[in-house]
Specification:
Layout lengths: L4 H13 L6 H4 L4 E8 L2 E3 L6 H4 L2 E3 L4 E4 L4 E8 L2 E5 L4 E10 L2 E6 L8 E6 L1
Antiparallel strand pairs: 1-2, 1-9, 3-4, 4-5, 5-6, 6-7, 7-8, 8-9
Length: about 120
């Protein structure tokens, strides 16, 4: 048994290092479009996020996102599992669930947006 202990420890370290946290590089490429609401980890019903998110977001780099609805670029910040979209008029925050390379779920990150959610697919 003592010979297997280093192998078990190595496997545990690998599993601890695995993460489903979203990073900026995961979002870059393609346009993310709202296709449904998002509840209990599943797409459901109609998307219920701000229209500029539902209509399509293209993440340009680690700081900049282009909104199809606004037809302009603005800033975003991703910290842990929360993304905040920022321009001169407002800041909108959502919690992000990474589903796979082409799907994410957003749920309201503030008290005001707590009932908002949307399921975005990369096109």
């Amino acid at each position: 048994m003592k010979y297997y202990l280093p192998i078990y420890l190595f496997l545990i370290l690998i599993l601890i290092g695995c993460s489903t946290d979203v990073v900026e590089e995961d979002l870059i490429g393609g346009t993310w479009v709202g296709t449904a609401g998002y509840e209990d980890g599943k797409p459901t019903g109609e998307p219920n996020c701000l229209y500029y998110i539902i209509d399509g977001l293209e993440f340009k780099d680690e700081d900049t996102v282009y909104s199809e609805a606004y037809d302009k670029e603005f800033e975003y910040k991703l910290v842990d599992d929360e993304i905040t979209f920022m321009d001169e008029n407002h800041h909108d925050s959502y919690y992000v669930d990474w589903i796979d390379d082409n799907k994410i779920g957003l749920t309201g990150g503030s008290e005001m947006k707590k009932n908002e959610s949307c399921y975005l697919e990369r096109k």
